[in-house]
Amino acid sequence: MGPVGKERSWIVVVLLSIVTLGIYAFYWQYAMFKEMKEHSGAGLGGVLGLLLSIVTGGLVATFVLPNEVGELYGRAGKEKPVSWLTGFWVLLPLIGSFVWLIKVQDRVNEYWASVPPLTEGFASPTA
Known about the structure:
Elements: H1 10-19, H2 23-40, H3 46-55, H4 59-75, H5 96-114
Helix pairs in contact: 1-2, 2-3, 2-4, 3-4, 4-5
């Protein structure tokens, strides 16, 4: 497994997305896809995830992002707390997008917190 991703507050994601008129939301998607790919070696990755999300009007992020978070758990031998089905939350008017974001961001934060950070260098040899 590669480096652990950054834990983010869903409230900060919402506020920065509003202040930047949606630009931060694109960065957030890119960063999420990138960090998960760097950590697990699987998934779309940052550039492809962002491009597909832009081309599909957010459809890729809505369904693939929670699925990739769930796969992180699955590869670690844990029960998947989110999946592509989580994307259907966005169909609930007004509140659905917030529920989706909270579920996805909180689950990925919990995953990052559960993974020990990589150590730099090598262990010293024992005699």
